[in-house]
From TrEMBL:
Domain of life from the UniProt record: Bacteria
SUPFAM superfamilies in the record: FAH
Protein name per UniProt: Fumarylacetoacetate hydrolase family protein
Keyword hit for Glycoprotein: no
Length: 258
């Protein structure tokens, strides 16, 4: 099931995305929230009539760096022996179609296409065999990075945590095996990144186990799983799209921060 979060006539709701042709997609409005038992209302609205929002509002976004060997190499870094985590604040999250605001203190903004894991229930110290039980589904993410700031500051808070640095969407796909999916990024229609999630050094299971050893994960929390090689610059006016097999495409435009 594809679960979207959207707004219509000033109201925010979740809905199940139905259909295959882009111009024929409809939302069956969900009674309740997707983090508990819910029913479909049967009330349907065309996707074209709503505004898609970030599919979840996470309490925290846990991101993993250098989880693809080729990406670590392209930036001159070693691959970590154990998963390497950092955080992006909830205020960095935006949805499909929202603008990425180029931070005024950076001169080198980069895209990073990533598979995002959405947590579906409160959990801690999750054993590997139960990871599937705590995952609601998967969505597309762009770990937008001020690369020049990342190089000069030991902590990545400003480089990766600025407002609009975490586009998510377009929806959460709940019925998906994340083990080996195509992941790509285009900028203004030109391909920049192309890889497969099977190239990850540490799997989704590894990452959920790793972070849940340290902290409680809450429904709607997001885990970013790293990016394949091919990261590169974004400029004001660019349109960047992240596409993941079995999920869809997340598109955002870069604007100057006002």
């Amino acid at each position: 099931m594809r679960i979207a979060r959207f707004s219509i006539d000033g109201n925010v709701a979740f809905g199940a995305v139905e259909g295959s042709a882009p111009d024929e997609l409809v939302l069956d409005i969900i009674k309740g929230i997707p983090f508990a038992d819910f029913e479909l209302s049967g009330t349907k609205v065309p996707l074209s009539k709503v505004r898609l929002l970030p599919p979840v509002l996470p309490n925290k976004v846990v991101a993993y760096g250098r989880n693809y060997a080729a990406h670590a190499k392209e930036l001159g870094n070693e691959t970590p022996e154990v998963p390497f985590a950092f955080f992006k604040p909830s205020t960095s999250v935006i949805g499909p179609g929202d603008a990425i605001q180029y931070p005024s203190y950076s001169r080198e903004l980069h895209h990073e296409a990533e598979l995002a894991v959405v947590i579906g229930r409160m959990c801690r110290e999750v054993p590997r065999e139960r990871v599937k039980d705590v995952v609601l589904g998967y969505t597309c993410a762009n770990d937008v990075t001020a690369r020049d700031i990342q190089r000069t500051e030991k902590q990545w808070a400003r480089a990766k945590g600025f407002d609009t640095a975490c586009p998510l969407g377009p929806w959460v796909e709940t019925d998906l095996d994340p083990a080996d999916l195509t992941i790509q990024c285009t900028v203004n229609g030109a391909q920049r990144q192309l890889g497969r999630t099977g190239e990850m050094i540490h799997s989704v299971e590894d990452l959920v186990v790793n972070i849940s050893e340290a902290m409680t994960l809450l429904p709607g929390d997001v885990i970013l799983t790293g990016t394949p090689e091919g990261v590169g610059p974004l400029n004001v006016g660019d349109e960047v799209a992240v596409t993941i097999e079995g999920i869809g495409t997340l598109t955002n435009k870069v604007i100057k921060r006002g």
